[in-house]
Amino acid sequence: MINILIGLFPALMWGMLPIILTKLGGKPIQQMIGTTLGSLIVALICLLFSYHHVSYSLSNVLLCFISGIFWSVGQLNQYRALEIIGVSQTMPLATGLLLISNSLFGVVVFGDWASGYQKILGFGAIALIIFSLFLTSYQTQRRSSKEISQLKRSILILLLSTLGYIGYATLPNFSDSNGWSAFLPQVVGMVLGTWLQAIFVYKQQPILGHESWRHLMSGFIFAIGALGYLISLKVNGVAVGYTLSQMGVIISTMGGIVFLKEHKTRSELKLTIIGLLLTSIAAIMVGLTKS
């Protein structure tokens, strides 16, 4: 039971993050600056207590550092989608796209799902996710042209976000770093990637404004969730740890509806709940392919 609670802890942290981001306000780039700085503080504190567990080589540090830059692209674009269509629409889409893309990338690049059993589970999970995306994004009332435009734009943004997350998730696989050794180089890459986007893409001035400092809390939440995930992988293994971490989509989606008052009709709410359950089942199926 304790191990399951440890596994659900990252889901709680990462599920709360979009809700807290929205409550604190600010532009996506300001939210990102605060998130990465807060994460850096946590990473440096952790290094003080775990230095005897970490070892670095130049190639490993570079791979993890670059993966952090990819994460900054993925996370920033997720924040952009949150601003446009809200938490309860963004998070099911983001989670579904990420589960599909990471799974397919693993099949193509790393030869995952080698057995027939794994293929049945994996592609069955993808079919469930696609259906769940339809359910969670369905609206009983006809969308206005503005809403359709916003949804299309957000899907494109989330596809870009997914590419960033793929780089973040896969590059460390080419190194022999453990999670603790990868954490600090990744966070440094996150900070640099965010600052480069702030300066050259979004022309953010000042870089460290009041809104950015306010989002240090967001960084603490993200980084503590990431540390919880590393611990979960150790006590639960990849299959269970990964699956439990994906349950955060339930917290964020329902939190958006309850705490942020994102409107859904009774029928839409029922379909959203069914979609979330299907996404959770699909995550379990993907997790089983890793066992």
Automatic annotation (TrEMBL):
Pfam (any one): Sugar_transport
Keywords from the named record: Membrane, Transmembrane, Transmembrane helix
Compartment(s): Membrane
Main localization of the protein described in the UniProt heading: membrane
InterPro entries from the UniProt entry: Sugar_transport (IPR010651)
Transmembrane regions: 6-25, 32-51, 57-73, 93-114, 120-139, 151-171, 183-202, 214-233, 239-259, 271-289
Gene Ontology terms: cellular component: membrane
Keyword Transmembrane helix attributed: yes
Topology within the bilayer: Multi-pass membrane protein
MF GO annotations: carbohydrate transmembrane transporter activity
Stated family: Belongs to the GRP transporter (TC 2.A.7.5) family.
Name of the protein described by the UniProt record: Ribose uptake protein RbsU
